TrEMBL record:
In the N-terminal section; belongs to the FlgJ family. In the C-terminal section; belongs to the glycosyl hydrolase 73 family. It comes from the Bacteria. Keywords: Cell projection, Cell wall biogenesis/degradation, Cilium, Flagellum, Glycosidase, Hydrolase, Periplasm. This is Peptidoglycan hydrolase FlgJ. GO terms for cellular component: periplasmic space.
Length: 332
């Protein structure tokens, strides 16, 4: 069995791994360096998985401190398995950069210099130097960025169609930015008014409207094609006495997307839509969202209150709130 396979098969929480790594560095610095690089990649992947987990609701019926503990152990094991596969390539780059600090004959255990390695002399200590690690990681990051840029540049002409190629041109990017600014400018005065009533930042409300309408491109329309001004996908329940419009929508039932025809509220203006939305947020059901100043928490509160059935709704809204399109539109 290869050393990489052995490492992947061990428990990520096995405390003996650090001792084995120190021994491997003394006996065979080149092979030990490879395992150290895999450990760094595993650490990076584990942090990434943890960040992904943090975006998901963790107060479900089956969630507890115990379930979260074992989930974190699963993520550690998964990160270790992925790093040992070598598919990401980060460990290989670290190994190449750190390998510069090894002597040319480090692969030969019988040479005088590798004898000194067994005694724990310079090359091993150099590998554990914080400055050396910072330099190696910085060089690795530069190589990853350069490699990704090269892949993107080569993939666009080969794989992109004429339509998708147009989307990456400066003109198309400028058009998208301009469209975002127009959308924000059109709604901003009404968003500020609703913000004063709810305590929620105005740009959170604009982001919510952007999610529901595709930045104004998919507004719910009446039978004659005119706008219903329904920016937030608010349905017309039994208590609604105003005008309505019927539209096709996607709902998730037990996690499965299904299309259906639903009745939605229709307004006379965007100002009216924002006032109704502000009244909606002031209901006890949405108490967690009212006055919320954190974008991601605002999005999660809406989802937890059942605003939408899409399991990724909070994530989508959070990305718009913290995304570059809204930020550029607000700066403009």
């Amino acid at each position: 069995m290869k050393s990489g396979d052995l490492s992947a098969s061990r428990l990520a929480v096995d405390v003996r791994q650090s001792d084995d790594l120190r021994l491997k560095l003394k006996q065979n610095p080149r092979e030990g360096l490879k395992q150290v690089a895999e450990q760094f990649e595993s650490l990076f992947l584990n942090m990434m998985l943890k960040s992904m987990r943090d975006t998901l609701p963790q107060d479900g019926l089956f969630d507890s401190d115990q379930s979260r503990f074992y989930t974190s152990m699963l993520d550690q094991q998964m990160a270790q398995k992925l790093s040992s596969s070598g598919q990401l390539g980060f460990a290989k780059l670290i190994e190449q950069q750190m390998g510069r600090f090894l002597p040319p004959d480090a692969d030969n255990p019988t040479s005088p210099s590798s004898s000194s390695l067994s005694a724990g002399v310079a090359p091993v200590s150099a590998l554990s130097s914080p400055e050396t690690m910072r330099q190696a990681l910085a060089l690795a990051r530069e190589q990853i960025a350069a490699r990704n840029a090269a892949r993107t540049a080569s993939a666009i002409p080969a794989a992109a169609s004429a339509e998708s190629a147009a989307q990456v041109t400066p003109g198309a990017s400028s058009s998208a930015s301009s469209s975002g600014k127009d959308f924000v400018n059109r709604l901003w005065p009404h968003a500020v008014e609703a913000s004063q009533a709810t305590g929620v930042p105005a740009h959170f409300l604009v982001a919510h409207a952007a999610l529901e309408t595709g930045w104004g491109k998919s507004e719910i329309r009446r039978a004659d094609g005119s706008s219903s001004y329904n920016l937030f996908g608010v349905k017309a329940g039994k208590s609604w006495q105003g005008a309505t419009v019927e539209a096709t929508t996607t709902e998730y039932v037990n996690g499965v997307a299904q299309t259906s025809k639903e009745k939605f509220r229709a307004y006379g203006s965007y100002a009216e839509a924002f006032r109704d939305y502000a009244n909606l947020l002031q209901r006890p059901r949405f108490a967690g969202a009212l006055g919320q100043q954190d974008g991601m928490e605002f999005a999660r509160s809406l989802q937890q209150a059942g605003y939408a059935t899409d399991p990724m709704y909070a994530d989508k809204l959070g990305r718009i709130i913290n995304g570059p399109t809204l930020r550029q539109a607000l700066q403009g």
